[in-house]
Amino acid sequence: MARVKDVLGPVAGIGGNISLSLLDVGTVQQVKDQVKQLIKECAKGGGYIVMTGAAVDQTKAENLKAMVEAVKEFGKY
Hints:
It is a single chain. This protein has 77 residues and is mainly α. The protein has one domain (2-74). The chain contains four helices and two strands. It has helices at 2-8, 20-25, 28-42, 61-74; strands at 14-15, 48-49. α3 (28-42) packs parallel to α4 (61-74). The model has no long low-confidence stretch (mean pLDDT 92).
């Protein structure tokens, strides 16, 4: 994702890359750490959307909540 952001710069928005397997079986802290890292790598200059790449029907509810909380905590422009 960081490479895509470097190549596209502010020309296009990008989104994604929250690991579904991490949401399914990871810990709350692992989810928050991944969100924080992706925001750090991709949000500079705007145009980054934190999201998964597919449906989250088997995901732990506490991990989805952790993803949203981490976006609120680390995703400020």
